[in-house]
Amino acid sequence: MSTTTTTTAPTLRLLSLGAGVQSTTLFLLAAQGAIEPFDYALFADTGWEPRSVYRHLECLERTAAEAGIPMLRVSAGNIRDDALDERHRFASMPLFVRGPQGQRGMARRQCTSEYKVRPLKREARRLLGFPHPTRVPSGVYATQAIGISVDEVHRAKDADVRYLRNVFPLLDLGWTRRDCRAYLSAHGWGHTLRSACIGCPYRSNTSWAELRATEPAEFEDAADFDAAIRHGHPAAAKRGMPLRGTYYLHSSRQPLAEADLGIDNGSEPEGCSPWSCRGDAAPDPALGGEGQ
Asked: Which of 35, 130, 136, 145 meets the CB 3.0–4.6 Å disulfide criterion with 163?
């Protein structure tokens, strides 16, 4: 939770809009005047979001226009295409790894930082009037509202740059994720889903099975990507990064197209929050946890 105190007023009030349950709740509360309004709502688009997320964003954009809240989409590229492009530097995803002797580990997670956090910071600087590399003067800052509810207060953290100051309106309201869902349902937004890339490795079997049943083309896309990434980034060998395992989207470390999705493998993180990803996991260097 933010502990920063100041007597100066923020230059801008921003909402980090992940398009999941909590951030959608914050957006609608502001649009209805129930909490302090935002100057901008920012969505970081990885380029590989499910169609359901893009449809949800379109609905939010219509509401934003009515409420007078500019909604901006920012992007650092298409995470799927970049991961398979040998000309592009690979920001590793938290892929499941099977080592040469069958060891099990995970690759380092850099995708959230590169495809969500960095473009959001870049846009915040631009909106403040000091795009990189221009120095942001002392005392110029934006508050950044983040959708963290009281049942996950441990995820609330201060910003790591002085031109952003994180605030958590749901904590001030004392709302849980269940409260957010009840609010959304009461206001016609009960369809709001978790927000995560099509090929997010943190999906549970239930989530993968639902994707296969409801969006077969997206599931096939994820399965194709899973097969293509089996031996890491295509430029790894050329750059002197020896492979130390095989890589998978599914936690069983089997090809996604062949994985048994009928097994209960537990719950999954509730979406991908740019500022405090629920899926943090330490990589195993012995298994090539450097994102090869």
From this structure: 136
